[in-house]
């Protein structure tokens, strides 16, 4: 056998314990046994101490000796007790599965729905380990790789770039500063979603418009300007936003090409919408869109200590 020991962690087997017992009776030292088994001397020393039993000799004197059978039973008992008991039972599993299928994130499930009896990381672990009986498609945002788009110069210049936006807007000090985008459901010329997200409260506005044109966008914005306060609006460089200044009297800023993170608030909300209307959705209705908007505006947010955008609007 090897004259050195490996650092790879592996439990002693019954055969190894029997060899330890035999070699101890032959008078070998613990260090010699460690070399023969390719184990650490400390491992053998701990094993011998844990496997001690009292044995009486012919003179009725008791001596401590190593017993491989006793050591193996002790090992099995300790292994059984070392397994952490899980809180996951049938009832808890049904609750978590219900909310995940209802498009609720693990953070909100753990903190709000289950009142903190388990952590969000525990829910994620159960998900990834398959202990909830869910498939990859049931997860809100399953991990996947995306091809990297080449960054090219953007010839479009509809107005002020985001670099000119005041720092106070970036710091979300005041209500009324919005980010805007369109969400396409299919590649066919069908209705699309116009989405607006208020930067401070994360209030979401979703409208179903006829198509992805500047005329349809401006027509809807003119209606919304009578309901909401627009102090500024930040858009991407899509052609549908080329004439925003014609529909709104507020400042309009444009993000750089291939820089969706510059409108990260709105992009994250679009991902929430995709929970209900994934790519390829052929049909939806204004009522269905309104229900999604109401759900999002009543959805607890971790950043607001699990208050919703509607509660933030009310100063809750």
UniProtKB/TrEMBL annotation:
Keyword Acyltransferase: no
UniProt cross-references to Pfam families, sorted A to Z: HTH_38
InterPro entries: Integrase_cat-core, IS30-like_HTH, RNaseH-like_sf, RNaseH_sf, Transposase-Integrase, Transposase_IS30-like
Integrase catalytic domain segment(s): 162-316
PROSITE patterns listed in its UniProt record: INTEGRASE
GO molecular function annotations of the record: nucleic acid binding; transposase activity
BP terms from Gene Ontology: DNA integration; DNA recombination; transposition
Gene3D superfamilies named in the record: Homeodomain-like, Ribonuclease H-like superfamily/Ribonuclease H
Keyword ATP-binding listed: no
Alphabetical UniProt keywords: DNA recombination
UniProt GO cellular component terms: cytosol
Protein name: Transposase
Species name: Pseudolactococcus piscium MKFS47
Highest classification ranks of the organism: Bacteria, Bacillati, Bacillota, Bacilli, Lactobacillales
